[in-house]
Structure prediction request, 564 residues.
Amino acid sequence: MEKILSDYLKNKFPTDEFLTDETDENNLSNLSNPSGNIPDTMVDKVGAEEFLINMGPQHPSTHGVCRLLLKMDGEVIVDVVPYIGYLHRSMEKIAENRTYLQYMPLTDRIDYVSAMFCNHVFCLAVEKLAQIQVPERAEYVRVIMDELNRIASHLIWLGTFALDLGAITPFLYCFREREKILDLLEMVSGQRMTFNYMRFGGVSRDLPPVFIPKAKEFVQYFKPRVDEYEDILTNNPIFLGRTKGVGILDQKTAIDYSVTGPNLRASGLRWDLRKEEPYSIYDRFEFDVPAGTNSDVWDRYMVRIQEMRQANRIVEQALESIPEGEIKTKTPTVFRPPKGEVYARIESTRGEMGFYIVSDGSTIPYRIKLRTASFSNLAVLPVMSRGWKIADIVAIFASLDVIMPDVDR
Amino acid sequence: MTKEEIIQIFQNKFPERIEQIPFVGVDVAFKVDKDLILEVCRFAKATPELSFDLLACLSCVDYIDHMELVYNLFSFTHKHKIAIKTSLPRDGEIDSVTPVWNAANWHEREIAELFGMTFRNHPDPRPILLAEDWNEGYPMRKNWDGKDFVRLPKK
Prediction:
């Protein structure tokens, strides 16, 4: 690697005017560490006017710890290489050393801004494998929690996305509403973000009596708030200039890279697992699946705005029709699912979230593979950002709604 | 399309090479020989009646004496999903399916790094998740023993 870099530098500075041998070596050691593995395509074909620039890992716009190495031609991006793994905690290895229930709190940490989905998909996979029936009330509670969490997650996305583009006001608005949701979720689960709320066969505790009136109040309160965000952003000329026609991800590429969720829907494919493969009780609610037409950053923004409205609609319907009854099917204290394999998936905030579990019939899972949406969504970034200006990479990256612990696991 | 029809299409194309296996949560699951994997994947994507255009998940499982790769495929057109399994020896080699789905690129890099197998013709075989100076072997293997790693006894 050092050789490639030194060749590259020699090409760049053929007269050795700036680099004596000693400084050359010093510079090289700085450059190759800690970056190390630069793909050959990145340095092999560097043209006369091209240069490499580093973004991250500690950068306010990378929403976590992600490093991007950009190959630039002037202000235009020629190529991008994402470096991930800074938050790799090896969730999959830890799973092989915990009982099923002990793993539940850890699933919250996979995607900490929409932790309910991680809980839900893990429960769903185990329930499928062990054929556990979930009581109706518990299903309603799960849907309410999921959709409230979806709104909270989209709000944090909207706020930081606008912040990345230079608009500070939406951030404050979004966090005002998000805090109300987190209060509701805390009322139910005891935690603001890492809930550890769902259990195999139901949920851990029933809704407190004050929850339903409070949640109904919130639903009504939230409806006009979305219009407020739209007033600030949707027709704002600066916002339009930064987002319209930028970072186009066509449908074919999106499917090829397994991009799912709002990013895929913004590419024009009206695909939502809640509609197409209804898990839990999503077939009982009326809601629309928004989709984009131009597959640009603005469409991805619009899809998420619409999704917040639809999620709010689902919560409203669920709160109206939630029945009384049991909240959990009894499962054995020492829980041993039967031998077998299962793949379960749900529509999380960021797309398809899947759990692949191999059980050998003991109390500990033999293997758990986490299929997270952000991992696949981030892989498409280089394709999307080629040819755009360096300022656009911030908008494009933010519009993917990637969250780094979800990527690294 | 029913489960039987899906498996029948594969069996017609690859006679006596397809072995159906139980798998919860998918329509059909079967096992193929590791040398066939690229061909089977190409066929699954290109055949109009199947058109598996989404590689939903690619996982690896270590069974001590051999490794197993699991390809979870899904079709947006027909809304059916299958799992294809293949087994190979530890430290084995297998064809990369990146030419079929670009999504396999990162998944294969992850598996290569954590399980220590090789993907032939992979376009970008760099490590992906672990630290740059990692030298403690392949952590996802069942017999891996890292510093301070305590195994929970099995019951």
Residues 136-164 of chain A form the longest helix (29 residues). Chain A is about 50% helix and 10% strand. Residues 16-35 of chain A have pLDDT under 50 and may be disordered.
